[in-house]
Amino acid sequence: MADASISEDDFQKFREFFYRKTGIQFDMSKRYFVDKRLLERMADTGNATFRSYFTMLRFQASGVELQTLTNSMTVNETYFFREEYQFKCLVNSLLPDLVSRKKDDGPLRIWVLPSSSGEEPYSIAIYLLERWAGIHNFDVEIVASDIDTRILEQARRGLYSPRSVGQLPTAYRQKYFRQVGEDFQICDDLRGAVEYTRVNLSDRADTRAYRNFNVVFCRNLLIYFDDVSRKAAAETFYDALKPGGFICLGHSESMSRISSLYKVRKFPEAIVYQKPTE
């Protein structure tokens, strides 16, 4: 390969381009991570220089390479029942609040993004089945989205390592999973209970169809965005939620520092953010 290297100027050009396309911003501490993946994609696509690869990335009509690169650039590490206190808040506080105000026969809709490999949406499904009596009285739809098409396929397969299911009560693991070699695959009923979709949170054309949700889980994603992208994401969630709907962020994230669109609600289990009822 003639010039298989990423210069400082190359890095800055790529960082700006990737930010505009995905809303994800890499600082200099991620330089090694970004360079490594760019060089891998250059080799895999037969581009000898960053310039030729970057030209293909920008002008490829299909967008296939941009999606492939995005898949390699996104971090997907999670496990079942991570930050469980918010699931407790969902069943003990949020759903009772929503049900008390519910005036239609439609389903309760929950949007989870990023879905990663499915641990979070499946955790929510298990929590509802095991710990919310209302599951017998209301239809619940769970939609889980991610920008990474590879990880969405992994989520649909529902096959997990022992580490991924390590925080699950043994009874739940035995009830909802079957062992496949050393791994565990979630049961077909739960795989069918979650709808997985590809979405770029920074693309309004992608998110326009996401409406009428009662709860949004968006945990540990906005930390990768800058202030402009975080504000845009907050507005996207506002449009996606029904009046009175809730959004749950990661434990280190605060909507109050991003947008004034939401009310802060303090429940015994967690602090969440609510779209005003009117």
UniProtKB/TrEMBL annotation:
SUPFAM superfamilies the record matches: Chemotaxis receptor methyltransferase CheR, N-terminal domain, S-adenosyl-L-methionine-dependent methyltransferases
The EC number(s) this enzyme carries: 2.1.1.80
All residue ranges annotated as the CheR-type methyltransferase domain in the record: 1-278
Coiled coil spans: none
Tagged with keyword Zinc-finger: no
Keywords: Methyltransferase, S-adenosyl-L-methionine, Transferase
Reactions catalysed, as given in the entry: L-glutamyl-[protein] + S-adenosyl-L-methionine = [protein]-L-glutamate 5-O-methyl ester + S-adenosyl-L-homocysteine
A Pfam short name: CheR
InterPro entries, sorted: Bact_Chemotaxis_MeTrfase, Chemotaxis_MeTrfase_CheR, CheR_C, CheR_MeTrfase, CheR_N, CheR_N_sf, SAM-dependent_MTases_sf
Known role: Methylation of the membrane-bound methyl-accepting chemotaxis proteins (MCP) to form gamma-glutamyl methyl ester residues in MCP.
Name the record gives this protein: Chemotaxis protein methyltransferase
Organism: Rhodoferax potami
High-level lineage: Bacteria, Pseudomonadati, Pseudomonadota, Betaproteobacteria, Burkholderiales
